[in-house]
Amino acid sequence: MSEIKSVAIAGASGTLGPHVLKALIDAKFQVKILTRSKKPRQFDTSVDVVEVDFTSVESLTAALKGIDAVVSTVAGAAIKTQTVLIDAAAVAGVKRFIPSEYGSVTTNPKLEAIPFYDNAFKVKHHLQEKADAGQLTWTVLACGAFLEFLFAPGAAGLLDFTDRKATLFDAGDNRLSSTSLATVGKAIAEILKNSEATKNRVVKVSEVILTQNQLLRIAEKLRPEDKWEISKVAASVVLKEGLDGLNAGDFSLPVIFKIIKGTALAGEIYGSAYDETDNELLGVKELTEEDLENIVAEKLA
């Protein structure tokens, strides 16, 4: 039986946050939302919403009194500021902290000094210091790329389903784990239910392992009359372009996507495909080939 009953969420209105909120409510946890400012009817009325100053340990500590676990789903530049929330959680007596990471290769030590990834490692080190001092425990959830992002139009997607274009990284056979936002939310709830088995470690889930060529074959099977424009690029080249952009002071999304894709789509170099997972522990079911075909068919319509 888990010792965790009450959970606070930071970043509940973001991309992942609403899915985590729903999963925690469905799992019957007592939920408190930490927010910079309340917005009328933004959240379910059954949920406690508290305004906090995320730069203040005192403000956050007061909000976290009596809370068993903190789940952070903050994004972007806020990743590095999680150390303040961790400090407050430790002071307030929080038992478990799940940081906002939820990535493909964010736990690979080869990337610790790489810009964009370095903040995630700083947060993990901070959590381990607190754990070593007996102040709290932690879990990092590695879930691969969000499935919705991989099928989205634009720079994040694996293929351009709209214009029938494919830029294959290396040969197009590099493997990448992926999990949907809703399943990530449910996995977080299950981590908290299985608090002892998930204590102070990286937990991995993967609904599916994809390759670009795999999706391209499915698309060509479903719509053989379509002609795809195919090009190739080296993942290492894309990564270098992204790092060069950051070094030049360009922190735009296209530059960030180059770093993400240049590492997540680099095959086995950074371990982006999870052949060993905690799917069974957390009740995560893998997608079937039929499931994939249905997703691709929807994107081709």
Automatic annotation (TrEMBL):
Keyword entries, A-Z: NADP, Oxidoreductase
A Pfam short name: NmrA
Domain NmrA-like, chain residue ranges per copy: 5-221
Keyword Oxidoreductase among record annotations: yes
Protein name: NmrA-like domain-containing protein
